Amino acid sequence: QVQLVESGGGLVQPGGSLRLSCAASGSDRSIMAMGWYRQSPGKQRELVAAINGRGGTNYARSVKGRFTISRDNTKNTVHLQMNSLKPEDTAVYYCSAGDDPNSISPSTYWGQGTQVTVSS
Question: How far, CA to CA in Å, does 99 sit from each of 10, 62, 72?
Answer without folding.
Answer: 29, 27, 16
